[in-house]
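>> received
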Amino acid sequence: QVQFVESGGGLVQPGGSLRLSCAASSSLFGVYDMSWYRQTPGKQRELVAGITRSGNTNYADSVKGRFTISRDNAKNTGYLQMTSLKPEDSAVYYCNLRLLANDFWGQGTQVTVSS
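>> returned
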């Protein structure tokens, strides 16, 4: 199984930007489809954005036009560029890697949007 870790979270003011990273320890990273999910206390985990191994992307309506998902397979790393952040975006963000029917999750990184 591939091992990976999320980073890049932190405290940012409304309207600000953050870039999250999902860094894998294996050259097999490029085989996986990658998604970013987020979760707040008391709520179920929700899909934010996804990118396939071929580079096709999709976004939740709530972040479309503000977030950009990307990947650099040569670096075994995926990214989520977040702009125009809103307080409603505050959550723990998780990287998800999928191969066939199997999902693998990182430990998450906290994003807090507050003035």
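>> The chain has no helices and eleven strands.
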